[in-house]
Amino acid sequence: MNQLTHQFDTTAKYLHWISALVILWASISGLYIAFFELESNIKSHILSFNVSITTVFMPLFCWRIYHRLKQGVPAPHPAMSILEAKLAHIGHTSLYVLVSLVLVSGVLMMGHDVTVFGLFTIPQLLADQSTIHFFESLHLYTCRLLALLIVCHLAALIKHEMSGRRILKRMI
Questions:
Q1: HEC-encoded secondary structure of the chain
Q2: Residues 160 and 84: beta-carbon distance below 8 Å
Q3: For position 1, what pLDDT does the model report?
Q4: Integer Cα distance of 39 and 23 in angstroms
Q5: Is 33:140 a contact under the CB 8 Å cutoff?
Q6: pLDDT, position 6
Q7: What is the pLDDT of residue 96?
Q8: Which residues are paired to 115 by β-bridges?
Q9: Environment class of residue 143 by beta-carbon count within 10 Å: exposed (0-12), middle (13-18) or buried (19+)?
Q10: Quick one: pLDDT at residue 34?
Q11: Which residues contact 65 (CB under 8 A, 6 or more apart)?
Q12: Residue 94: per-residue pLDDT
């Protein structure tokens, strides 16, 4: 990617917004399930949809990582300090790492075969209950960290936008 530009390319923009939609849906619906009493059939449908949508999302997320590594990122917004640019880099890298951990732990914590939108089935990958439990715990904690980091990401966006640094334009 041309480091002189401050815009992301079209592919990066589409992959970002697809990622944002899937991650926000899975996070919000997962937290909803965790904190509210639901009828078992509703909970089951939401969980099944989340597993299906995140399974379909995994290759897109891998493409997103590949694209970012291959194309690089635009130069930081000119109004950002060196410290802000470094914090943004750390934040974005942390988002990629946490999303990767959430997706992988989500697959490995499954104690049963997974059917994706009724189209195909992925067999259970692990049989050892203690290993499955480890990945359930990892998934739980990385989901919480991811939700916290997303709040920070959105807060930074709002802060920059309100201070006149139109950084959102880079991704639209």
A1: CCCCCCCCCHHHHHHHHHHHHHHHHHHHHHHHHHHCCCCHHHHHHHHHHHHHHHHHHHHHHHHHHHHHHHHCCCCCCCCCCHHHHHHHHHHHHHHHHHHHHHHHHHHHCCCCCEEECCCEEECCCCCCHHHHHHHHHHHHHHHHHHHHHHHHHHHHHHHHHHCCCCHHHHHC
A2: no
A3: 43
A4: 24
A5: no
A6: 72
A7: 98
A8: 121
A9: buried
A10: 86
A11: 96, 100
A12: 97
* Contact in structure between 56 and 116 (CB atoms under 8 Å): yes
Cα–Cα distance measured from residue 78 to residue 165, given in angstroms and rounded to the nearest whole number? 9
Token representation of residue 167: 């950084």
Q: What integer pLDDT is reported at residue 5 of this predicted model? A: 59
Taking only the tens place, the pLDDT of each residue in 112-142 is 999 999 999 999 999 999 999 999 999 999 9
What is the rounded end-to-end Cα distance, in angstroms, of the chain? 17
**pLDDT of the residue at 164:** 84
**In the structure encoding, which two tokens stand for residue 87, read together?**
């914090």
C-alpha 137/C-alpha 134 separation (Å) is 5
For residue 121, report the phi and psi dihedrals to the nearest 5 degrees: -120, 135
Q: pLDDT below 70 — which residues of the chain?
A: 1-5
Residue 6 CA, distance from chain mean position: 23
Cβ(149)–Cβ(98) below 8 Å: yes
